[in-house]
């Protein structure tokens, strides 16, 4: 993970193409990995990450063939 994202003054770079209204399947799986990682922590943010990971996993097809 890029340490710049942890900086409170970080701003997203300018987009060179329009942002899609939905995540691609690959992006959804990457986000699910991040949520599962943070969900392994025992604190309020971890609980929220676990909840969102479960919601996302219920809506996204498995990455396994």
Q: What does this protein look like?
A:
The protein is mainly α and 65 residues long. 48% of the residues lie in helices and 0% in strands. The protein contains 2 helices and no strands. It has helices at residues 25-39, 44-59. Helix 1 packs antiparallel against helix 2 (44-59). It is flat.
List strands and helices in order, with pairings.
Blueprint: H1 25-39, H2 44-59
State the major sheet.
none
Average pLDDT figure: 84
Backbone CA Rg: 14 Å
Strand content: under 5%
**Given the helix and strand composition, which structural class is it?**
mainly alpha
What sort of overall outline do the alpha carbons produce when their principal axes are compared?
flat
Number of helices: 2
Give the helices and strands as they follow along the chain.
Answer: HH
Which spans have pLDDT < 50 for at least 5 consecutive residues?
none
Count of individual beta strands = 0
User: What is the helical fraction, as a range of percent?
Assistant: 40-55%
User: Termini separation (Å)?
Assistant: 27 Å
List key phrases describing it:
0% strand, mainly alpha, 65 residues
Outline of this structure?
The protein has 65 residues and is an all-alpha fold. Helices cover 48% and strands 0% of the residues. The model has no long low-confidence stretch (mean pLDDT 84).
């Amino acid at each position: 993970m890029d340490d710049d994202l942890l900086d409170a003054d970080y701003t997203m770079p300018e987009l060179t193409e329009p942002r899609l209204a939905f995540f691609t399947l690959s992006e959804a799986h990457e986000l699910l990995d991040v949520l599962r990682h943070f969900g392994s922590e025992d604190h309020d943010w971890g609980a929220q990450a676990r909840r969102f990971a479960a919601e996302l996993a219920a809506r996204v097809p498995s990455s396994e063939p």
